[in-house]
Amino acid sequence: MTTSPCGQPIPEVDLALITGSANWGLRFPEDAGLPGVRVLSRDVSHETAHGISENWKLLEFDGSMTTDGRPRRALCMYSHGNPRDWIDHSCHRRAFAVLQAAGVRRVLASSTIGSLNRAIRVP
Known about the structure:
The chain has about 120 residues and is mainly beta. The chain contains 1 helix and 7 strands, in the order E-E-E-E-E-E-H-E. It has one helix spanning about 90-100, and strands at about 1-5, 10, 15-20, 35-50, 50-60, 70-80, 105-110. It has a 5-stranded mixed beta sheet.
């Protein structure tokens, strides 16, 4: 686990959930009412070389939701930064610095557009 200068440990996880602007009116996962999903921590900030990345959540999915029956943890963040009514176009550098420090290998993005693969270009 890496500790950011904000003093908050960056948890080691291999999965991240990134939500987009269609989620402005939804607190995920709290408002979704999904059984088996628990918020372990919320409103966590981490210092990066690009500034502070705020409002992270650490989620846990119980074994009923995983293929091998083992619980999994994931970092969750809103892709445009916070507050939700203002889009911060530079937050991605800070967010991906946190994901790299956490050791994230898979990203599930919902309600977002674009790609992490440079080979996929906008027409």
